[in-house]
Design brief:
Blueprint lengths: L10 E14 L8 H8 L8 E14 L10 H16 L2 E2 H4 L10 H12 L8 E7 L5 E4 L3
Parallel strand pairs: 1-3
Antiparallel strand pairs: 1-2, 2-4, 4-5
Length: 145
Amino acid sequence: MRAAGPGCRRRARVSRVVSFSATHRLHSQYLSDEENLKLFGKCNNPNGHGHNYKVVVTVDGEIDPVTGMVINLTDLKGYMEEAIMKPLDHKNLDLDVPYFADIVSTTENVAVYIWENLQKFIPVGLLYRVKVYETDNNIVVYKGE
């Protein structure tokens, strides 16, 4: 079988995983304390609660015929360190991450935050999906929509 040459561009999706630990409290400033407690239950604990999040970042693009890569995985690792690990790992999302000062730190919003942060680093058009596991059972997929 012959390798694809310059005239035959192939596409692939490449994923990389990181894990981080953080605490947060689900609480909306637009709801009363009673409404927050009813909506978020134990996740509205005033002292917060923590998770060991797992994040799967997927890029999609053409396989470079010279390098054989969609993206250099060493570069992707560095982008994820800057966009995910440094701002989120071992942090209180609500107190330590300015983005969440006025936004409820749901997993949906964590996924959006990660997407927006990654967009600052990953070459335009390559970021395909951010998948955030809050637990083994609670998972959010965000594609920039």
